[in-house]
Predict the structure of 1,5-anhydro-D-fructose reductase.
Amino acid sequence: MNPKTAPLTRRKFSRACLAAGAAPLVLPGRVRARPSANDRITVGMLGVGRQAYHANMPAFLHMPDVQVVAVCDVDDWRLQNARKRVETHYAEQRPSGGYRGCAVYRDFREMLARPDIDAVMISTQDHWHVPMSLAAIEAGKDVSLEKPITVSIREGRLLCDAVARYSRVFRTDSEFRSRDRFRRACELVLNGRIGTLRRIRTGAPASDRACPPQPAQPVPEELDYDLWLGPAPRTPYTEKRVHPRKGYGRPGWMRVRDYCDGMISNWGTHLNDIAQWGNGTQTTGPVEIEGTGTYPDDGLWDVLTGFEVTYRYANGVEMLYTYSHPHVRFEGTEGWVQADLGGRGLTASSPAILNAPIGAGDIHLPAKTDKRDFIDAVKTRGATMETAEIGHRTTTVCHLGHIAIQVGRRLRWDPDAEVFPDDPEANRMLDRPRRAPWVI
């Protein structure tokens, strides 16, 4: 039996949770019945920092068929802000002007033990994504997970297997498939409006250059730092390692490889997802990778400060991924089309390509916001626009580039077996070391 597709037993799942860094979860005695199309979906927010507070939470709050019932964070200042925002929003919709129905949790396992929560939105630092998702899946929750969904290729396969085993709805939370310009670009490519696709170019914005070594600081009274670290290595607290105190500025953990791989995966999972979509390879991947990159010489922040990666696919398409600006460019035998996140929007080599109609018999890609896509799938038990498998494959593209940079040579990749053939050194990098099991 292929180990990649072998059934995931409950015992294997529990071991896997520990290996990924999640402490054992005691499941509730009953799980809420699956919601119907007419139900109001109850959502718990796991992690209520910058991305959740400014983007994910407001989207759910403004959906009439969703009720945010709980928030969870290891930072009490953020936790209380989130509770206040939820209760203020719902109070404004009531004649009484009052509402006190949002529970708060520091420990995510306590929130997951509630049988009345249908789904969770996970917006924590990257190294917690898979451990929390596995615990949520076993607790009977559907999951929307911030990208990048993994910090290693093997934990991505573990996540996909768990979603399938427990029949959970899963959404990779990137909004780029919902942006008209990116969807339109992929429709034009998939329907042959630029001829045969030959090359793709994608770009990510540059990361912060450096942060000098930082002194150890006292852990703030509002922060449970041990639970913040979870499966990551034990390291002294310093503010630039975690996030700004009592604020929502860009967090330092996004530049520290114990918790995140930096822009190569952070923005790469937006733009390379569109590349995979337009290439028709969203459930597979490249077969060859080579790349170069630079790291800071010294300091706290140690993610790549520059990179250039080339991928080759079995269909003959080549993709070049670099630090530049957020964009995806598809080049074919009869022209090109490019979608930029910024002001240029959607451009092409000729007006005829941009204005080409997508007919009734052509490929039409779904047009739906990311949160709407998730909630609709929770109700119908259908697939989201970015399933666990799609998210895993997109994130794998980013991991492959990072691995190629680290080993410093061209790599062959088998996207079916998800291994580097005959390359023990590269295969050792399919996993990420974890501190497991961790103890609070």
